[in-house]
Amino acid sequence: MFGDLFEEDFSFISNNQCGKGKKSKPRDTEPPAPREFTNLSGIKNQGGTCYLNSLLQTLLFTPEFREALFSLGPEELGTLDDISKPDAKVRIIPLQLQRLFAQLLLLDQQAASTTDLTESFGWNSNEEMRQHDVQELNRILFSALETSLVGTSGHDIINRLYHGIVVNQIVCKECKNVSERQEDFLDLTVAVKGIAGLEEALWNMYVEEEYFENDNLYRCGACDKLVEASKLAKLRKLPPFLTISLLRFNFDFEKCERYKETSCYTFPIQINLSPFCEQTELDDSEYMYELFSVIIHKGGCYGGHYHVYIKDVDELGNWQLQEEESNTVEDKVLRDTENAKEIENPLAVLKGILSEEESKQMPVDQLGQKLLEKKGMSWNKKYRKQYGALRKYLQNHPQVFQFSPDENKVGLKEKYHKLPFKSDSQGQDLQSPPQKNNVQWNLEKTSTTLRDSSAGCHWFDLNDSKVQPIKEKDIEKQFQGKESAYMLFYRKSQLKRPPEARGNPRYQIPEHLLNEMNAANTELQKKRAECDSASHGIDLHLHLSSCYKFHNGALHPSFTWKESIVDLTIDRRRTLGDLRQSVFQMLESWEGDMILSIAKPLPAGLHLYHSLDGDELTLDGIGLADGADIFVWNGKEVGGTKVLTGPDHEPVIVNVLRLAEYNEGGKGQHFTESQHIIPCSTELGALRRALAPSGGIILKNGSGLGKDTKNWEVLPEEDMKETVKSVGLTDGCSILILDSHDQSLVNVSNGNLTAFTCDISWLQVKNFCRTDAEEKQVKITTTIETVMSDIKIKAIQELQLEEELANDSCLRPVSGNGKLLSPVPEDYTVKEAELKMGSLLGLCHGKSPTSTQLFLYFIVGSDQHTGPEMEIVVEETASVRECLNLMLEKSGLSGDNWHLRRLDWCYEAGEALSQENATLKELNVCRGDTLVVTEGKLPPKGFLKIPIWWYKPLNHMEHQENARDQVNGVTCKMEALEVSPAGEYVQTDMGLCYAGSIEITGEASLEDLKIQAMTLPCCQEQIIPLPAFLRAWTVESKRPGKLLRNNKQQLNEYKLGARVEICIEPLQKEENLGPHELLLRVQMGIPGQRDYYHSTDLVWDISKECTTGALRQRVASHYCLPVDKIEIAKYFPEKFEWLPISSWTQQISKRKRKKKQESLQSAPYHLKDGDIIGVKNLLLDDAKDFSTVRDDVGKEKQRQLALEKKKSRQAERLQNHIFSEEKVNIKHRKPEVALSINVGVFR
């Protein structure tokens, strides 16, 4: 009904799943967290089930409902084990509800799961992620329970606890006859809008009377006539539990949108319903109700979250709330000052709390509460970040604290007090926890004094998995706002709970559920113990010295890494001595001293750091992390070689570059490269002696290989006593060794390279020479100064190809889509060829062009998709004519009727190369350009070659024949429909006949063009006395476009363009249109038919105004008809649609009206020359439909074409696996889905 009105808001949930640097463990292997200090269990949210959780908690804390449900045994409901049996009647919903209530009461976990319950509802994962209205769920769940309990002793549970009766009465004012009608209810729905609170709403519903009088009279059955009467409603029967639903959500009919009523709406903790009841003679206690649950909705009308405030009637939870701090800042500062030193030391704080207890012991959970109560802060807020969890902190100080055998209680060791562990208040030893009904109830670890100090019924906020204590006055905060009360639950004040139910969660729970929960608690304790051990376990990698050898300044395994490493898992709380003993046990053959050293794998190999000392220290205390590498050796040597340890002796891998002695290209620099492992404590002087015995200069580049060489810097002579580490050389850094004969390349004074700046990187070369073999690809190390011929020779060598291929091959860059680009001249450097480092080159057959030659692509014809793309190499000094002849020869064409054009940005034939004697270089034709060989000779310079069309509109008789030629209302004449270049069906009512082409100078006038057009053979058949009897149009989309006015105007002034086409229309009389005259084609509709008479030309002067009224006046005068007896519309042939030009005007200001009326040449009409205007004569034809049969056919064709396009696009998406949706910031609303619960048949 409400769609996503109650959609869950998850904005408060963090995306961070685990801490940084911690091992991520599977969530399903961890046992659920135990209950918090409140001893109440929450319910997990399955994605959108907060509304369900809130209602279930309310039912759980309705003891009478809970106990009535528990009273139904397996003999009535069946058992869950019999679900698969075909003949068994298993009432699965009440069974799963019983089991969930038992878990919430008895199972030691922070939150229970409702998965089994929702599965019994028949819900799938989609339903669990979709949130619904809790008021709707309340009714549907009660209906499902009633259906499930048919035929059992609990068939009337809902009716007995929640059923009430409202009576509606109408009293006749004359005969006093009373007509009444009863209505049953399980909950009352009250209005919120415009009402101050619950009492006022009930007063309006059950006290105020409605009167029938004046024109609104009531027909009395006894009087049998219309009479005055009064109508009222009263509560006839009150249920033990009264549920009230607040109408918080309304609809604003002015804004047409939903909204949430957030105004203040009060409701009492106790309410007397006697003023609203029919019978009031009973004692007032019969009408007193107490509030015990408030379901709260937080959010707006399109999303939100539910939680519930509940009164703990049976005192099952532990309620303790931090007292409000002092109102004065001075008291707070004084208190903080007095406790600052003690607070900063958690050991002293905890010892002080325990020493104040008589038994010097208490449950661990209560210890945290004592800290909160006495020191004004919680452990998690003050100490957890630095010292970890409270239990772990206590366990890490075994010399001070002592745990009970079940680790539920903690106390001080005997040296801190003289009393050993004592028995608890009930005389039971700590080693045997108290048991009731044979259930090991470890939640009773909380002290009884806590409950005594907070005796009485208290309120809790149950928000999915989270349970927190609240004060009763906090309910007032839910009177108004976006977070406000949505459902109220009251119970009769007379309903008293038995003493044995107070504080006893096992009260009235069946034996089989007690046993199930007992077993589940035992399993939980076992899993938590295993998880605690696993969470403290760390994995260590042991490297054995017998499997390693030392060379090149680092340790390397004699075999594989896997064979040289032994993995060991150990508890981090154990000592270093325990670790050493474990290693001794694993290595039975070890002799002599055993030293354990921290190791670290480096790029150069394994390196050792400090040794581990202090066998009495814990592994956590010495900082041993999970996944640490430990080297096991004698502490002196490995394989007879002394090993230097520590960070000062870390090995570093350095790339050493030298200038090559021989460079085949003879241009630019080439380098040789090698890697060396150097201890970081090595002095630069010793390094120079080792790498350049004859002397030289060392340059370093801290950015590594392939970076900008401006980072190269010379290591001066005074730095030769520095170490590799001190000058900043690390793994991956590069050093350049220049011998004495290369030192001229360096300016030692400022430490920069002067003779060259080389980016050292690589290019990829792929073999395209052999089609039968696999196309191999190699990397070639190069700089920006490397010559292309050297790259080609090195690629041929690494590809293991024939050396003769070097004379008949070239390198061609490969584009991103795999296309081979123009070859690179061999004498170019990488920089001159404008190649980016890492680019892909193709080694192809054919000689590469020289630096004076151009490699060009060319195609024949104007469409590059119809013909193949060919290649040619020409001199840049060749003329356009010479280049054209070479292209014609290669493509097998001949003749002089050809010319060259460039390929424009739309990949179409563009600008023509009209200067045939100019060289390609002079016309800026570049290497890799594509030219188009186009048929036809170019006109002389300054001339236009214009195709001429003869324009003949369809005459009247042709229209009549089209109108008659109809079958069942659909025309059969389809010649007037053609396909446009855009793939759309368009209408061409006018005939365009190609007459030929003319060559005319751009300085000629429009009259000259018409005269020359009259000489064409097609035009000579017509009798045209003067050029003024011709009308000229441009051709656009196979129909007349722009009208060319003024016969004396030059063609250049029209800005026609190089590819313009002109159509000529013959006229019956001379015409010379002015700049403010608009030419329209008007056609009168044929009365009684969906067709028009032959169109006529209408010249309209728009110099004064171009408005609807002016056009209607002009059309009416043209046909000699009254203005109010015609209707006109503009025709849009590309859409086959008519847009009526209405005479209706809005009541607007004069300024706006003037602007509004000047819109016929703007949107939506865009009136221009040649537009078709349809006219309807209302004296003969009252049909205002302007469309014709051909319009219907055209629209149908366009619709079919659109469907075909859509199907082809869908097929293409399916083939290419394109299913991704656009990510937008708008949160889409979910579809409206009704809530339902599936119930079996038990009648």
TrEMBL record:
GO BP annotation list:
protein deubiquitination; proteolysis
* GO CC annotations, alphabetized: cytosol; nucleus
* Entries under SUPFAM superfamilies matching the protein: Cysteine proteinases
Which reaction(s) does its UniProt entry say it catalyses?
Thiol-dependent hydrolysis of ester, thioester, amide, peptide and isopeptide bonds formed by the C-terminal Gly of ubiquitin (a 76-residue protein attached to proteins as an intracellular targeting signal)
Enzyme class, UniProt record, top EC level = hydrolase
Q: Where is this region: Disordered?
A: 17-40
Task: Please give the superkingdom of this protein's source.
Answer: Eukaryota
Checking Pfam families in the record gives: UBL_USP40, UCH
Q: Has UniProt tagged this entry with the keyword Transmembrane?
A: no
**What InterPro entries would the database entry show?**
Papain-like_cys_pep_sf, Peptidase_C19, Peptidase_C19_UCH, UBL_USP40, USP, USP_CS
List UniProt keywords, sorted A-Z: Hydrolase, Protease, Thiol protease, Ubl conjugation pathway
- This chain belongs to which protein, by name? Ubiquitin carboxyl-terminal hydrolase 40
